[in-house]
Amino acid sequence: MTRDAGQLTPRQAVIGLLGLALLFGALVAGLDWLLPRSERIAALEAPAERQNDSAPGVVSCPSAIDLPSQPIDVSASDVIDCPDVYDGRRVRYTGEVVNAVLLRDDRAWLQVNDDLYALVAGPLPEHRTGLGGNSGLGVSVPVEAARSIERVGSRRTRGDVVRLEGVYLKADPHDGGVPAVRADRVVVVEHGYLVRQATVTRRLLVAGALLLASALAVGAWARSRPRRVLALLRRR
Questions:
Q1: Do the strands 157-158 and 161-172 form a parallel or antiparallel pair, or are they unpaired?
Q2: Is 140:174 a contact under the CB 8 Å cutoff?
Q3: In this predicted model, what pLDDT tens digit does every residue of 96-105 receive, in sequence order?
Q4: Most buried of 20, 136, 151, 172 (most Cβ within 10 A)?
């Protein structure tokens, strides 16, 4: 039986499949290289959920008499999960200032996040590793104290990390009744900076390499199958 001029031989089919597999493997390896996980990110684990053993899924709040002396170090999840325990108590709260600083009379209002992006891993564009959602609290501080804040977090900026002391209110009457910390002390513990896009050069290198590999593969196939290429061009 004679073989049609445009028909692939088993050897050519195997070589073609191997080539596609190698190209796909290079693509996967390239993407993995573009999204490196630093040691500190790879070691992160989701924080354990505080639960009551007798009622799974129910948050177990500490007793007011078991709380340490004030100010009490808290996280956003602490005070949101157990608002009655911390309401009216003096707390210490640390996080990254994000979005904006809003001035209202003699007070400034901040959104301060204390999630993993804010305090551990850094901004998402720098490592591109999903670590859960954002969490934080609204905070009001004296206007003079807010003047020490130089940067607020955004897509392109890491905000200043501040340590605040003040009274937690589960329903702040000065902010529409939402949970907030009315702080009187603000210390900037880490200044913000412009987000470093560390993977831009790598993306260009990998994209160029994959484009070159694809072009070489298509060129080699076209040279080995000139009649089939001409037939396809004529059909168009």
A1: unpaired
A2: yes
A3: 999 999 998 8
A4: 136
Q: Which two tokens stand for residue 235?
A: 């059909």
> Could you tell me which of 48, 85, 53 has the C-alpha nearest to residue 67?
85
Tokens at residue 198, please? Answer: 């560390």
Could you count the other beta carbons within 10 Å of the beta carbon of residue 26?
15
Query: Which residue bears the tokens 């999630």?
Result: 115
Q: 136: part of which helix (H) or strand (E)?
A: strand 136-142
Q: Are 154 and 100 in contact (CB under 8 A)?
A: no
Pairing relation of β-strands 136-142 and 107-113? Answer: antiparallel
- CA-to-CA distance for 74 and 50, rounded, in angstroms? 14
d(CA 204, CA 186): 42
Would you say the pTM of this structure is higher than 0.70? no
Q: Which amino acid is at 229?
A: V
- Is the pLDDT assigned to residue 51 strictly greater than 90? no
Element (H, E) at 72: strand 72-73
Tokens read off for 95? 């996080």
